[in-house]
Amino acid sequence: MNIVVCLKQVPDSGDVKINPETKTLMREGVDAVINPFDCYALEEGVRLKERFGGTVTAISMGPPQAEKALREAISLGADKAVLVSDRAFAGSDTLATSYALSTAIKKLGDVDIIITGKQAIDGDTAQVGPGIAVHLDMPQITYVRKIEEVADGKIRAERMNEEGYDIVEADMPVLISVVKEINEPRIASLKGKMAARKAEIPTWTAEFVGADPKQLGLDGSPTMVVEVFAPPARQGGKRLEGEPADMAEQLVNELKELQIL
Amino acid sequence: MALIIHKDKCVGCGVCVESCPFNALSIVERLAIVDGSACTMCGACAKEGVCPFEAIEMVKATEANPDVNLDDYKNVWVFAEQKKGKIQSVVYELLGKGQELAKTRGQEVWAILLGKNIADKAQELIHRGADKVIVVEDDSLENFEDGVYSKVITRLCKKYKPEIVLTGATTVGRALIPRVAVQVGTGLTADCTGLEIDKESGLLRQTRPAFGGNIMATILCPNHRPQMSTVRHKVMPEAETDTSRTGEVITEALLEEDGFSRSRVLEVVEILEDTVNITEADIIVSGGRGMKGPENFELLHDLAKAIGGAVGASRASVDEGWIPYSHQVGQTGKTVNPKVYIACGISGQIQHLIGMQSADVIIAINKDPDAPMMKIATYALCGDLFEIIPELTKQLSK
Ligand SMILES: Cc1cc2nc3c(=O)[nH]c(=O)nc-3n(C[C@H](O)[C@H](O)[C@H](O)COP(=O)(O)OP(=O)(O)OC[C@H]3O[C@@H](n4cnc5c(N)ncnc54)[C@H](O)[C@@H]3O)c2cc1C
Ligand SMILES: Nc1ncnc2c1ncn2[C@@H]1O[C@H](COP(=O)(O)O)[C@@H](O)[C@H]1O
């Protein structure tokens, strides 16, 4: 089975703040990490490979530094990795990103299953996965919390939703996006770390993957960020004091006043 | 669009470096340089008054998209998400916002309704503000299926040319509408919390949190149509019901060109506990590591019942196995937007706050007065939760 896992390198978001004076993102000392949901995507890919055989290819589009994330992916069980990187991709929105990734995945050849994270924690869009599926004309199952079965060219999985989950069957090749519940990612083995050190990670350019330049970068991106600002900071409120019963009473009164009760 | 730095004017003073929210500018050999991979073309550096030497300019190189005649597009569409024939409440929020946007543009609100035996719901949508409702009925549309649903809506968009398409940022909306956007070839802004029409250009200003709510971004889709957004649930008020409203119902058939389903819903499993759907709840009682063990979550369920809310959790308690993942709030769980969020024994690390800090009222119960949650809480109750929670439940049940 040919498995492709899409992973994105993101700033460790807990640290990203806006400097209230200069209104700029403070990224000093912010580590770049693999998008947390993509760690579950990778782990699931490796588990599928362990069950059914095949190869896991990790693919990432980003600046040259994203190679680090791919090397980490190899240490965690990916067989090979490809970095899709070119100045022509800079400024891509989700439409252009999903197009670029889909051209690179086509270049990889036959694929049975593409796995992405539910969403990336920097943009939080959850749009790139479905975008790739459309560009490659594949069905999709999003928010997967469990893969129940893969057999006879079909996959059966549990798709999480607001009320519970659906059991969905799809024809392969298929794209799935995964939530945290799906597995518990392993930590890198010694053997994995060795493989990561030795791995050759090719960089594929826009020309190499045969992408249409008009559909890439800013030209290929219909959306445009026109303003970035810090949200109003949340102010602290009242501290309630006293014995538990007093505190509870004060709170109930406050909530009544706010007409919440 | 292009960002141009006029080398003849730039003196390398570095003022622009400070103005860039994305750290994309730097000074190399007394000249400002843009890092293309970090630049988002937000234009902050090119704003008037930033560069003292007027050396930075944004040039709109890609003028209108030749394939799209913008004037052909009108009306605001709302995807009328339904489950088991019931219209989801986020749809009423979209209809409320849709009416406001349509009024500003002098246009109509249309609702798009797909399902099986669903046509009788069209009137309800009209009473909530839809001027027209397109109904597509077919047995195969009973449950949401990404492929066919998106093909049908793509075809309708091409036929009727809406200017704006709004969808709830639900698990269905976020799976469906990116497929439509790619098939139509237009932009899509995810999880918006603010939508308004720009007075000058008439464009839809779409504002959304990014980096987990640490920053807000306003996004336009200037040269492609429709302008599409998914909208966060519970941010916008619902449209009122007005049973005197009338509107038109347009029936469209499912066509062969909409393709066949390559995926099927075999079973819908609802988790029946009424305290689980935290994205719909107005009040959430949430427990963290301070709850100490799974047995103590009974305290939270009791409180939730007394106050009429759902039960949430921090990642710490989910990872401990005290409560299922579907209850997890935060960066790797769900984003919730309730009126009241009661955090019991939750310290309030940024990854948790990201998922709940837009709640109207936050109540923190914690024995550590300096926990971050206590600092942002509307009401901070300092003490032992094992004493406070039962008291609260008792007083609420009176
Ligand atoms: C990539 C990544 C993603 C993450 N995603 C999420 C996410 O989605 N959601 C999430 O919640 N976390 C997430 N986290 C984890 C987050 O950083 C915190 O570790 C987690 O939120 C802590 O949970 P907690 O507040 O329950 O536990 P703790 O931080 O251990 O806090 C427990 C609190 O309980 C109080 N307490 C203890 N006993 C009592 C008592 N008897 N009475 C009153 N108070 C008491 C303590 O004072 C303390 O403040 C993520 C982390 C990472 C790295
Ligand atoms: N630049 C990228 N390179 C590789 N995968 C990506 C990239 N951007 C997004 N993805 C994948 O798409 C998923 C959803 O991302 P997003 O739509 O940005 O929220 C992520 O979890 C990744 O699996």
Explain the overall architecture:
The complex is a heterodimer of chains A (261) and B (398). With 261 residues, chain A is an alpha/beta fold. Chain A contains seven helices and 15 strands. Chain A is globular. The mean pLDDT of chain A is 92. In chain B, 24% of the residues lie in helices and 27% in strands. Chain B contains ten helices and 22 strands. In chain B, strand 20 (340-344), helix 8 and strand 21 (361-366) form a beta-alpha-beta unit. Chain B starts with a strand and ends with a helix. The chains are: A alpha/beta (261), B alpha/beta (398). Adenosine monophosphate (AMP) binds at residues 6-8, 35, 37-38, 41, 60-62, 94, 97, 101, 116-117, 119-120, 123-129 of chain A.
Briefly, what is this?
The complex is a heterodimer of chains A (261) and B (398). Chain A has 261 residues and is an alpha/beta fold. Chain A has helices spanning 36-52, 67-75, 94-108, 128-135, 190-198, 206-209, 244-257; strands spanning 2-6, 9-11, 17-18, 25-26, 32-34, 55-61, 80-84, 113-117, 140-151, 154-160, 164-171, 174-178, 203-204, 224-229, 238-240.
Task: Please name the defining characteristics of this protein.
heterodimer; A: 261 residues; alpha/beta; Rossmann fold; two-stranded antiparallel sheet; 7 helices; 29% strand; globular; B: alpha/beta; 7-stranded parallel beta sheet; 5-stranded parallel beta sheet; binds flavin-adenine dinucleotide; binds adenosine monophosphate
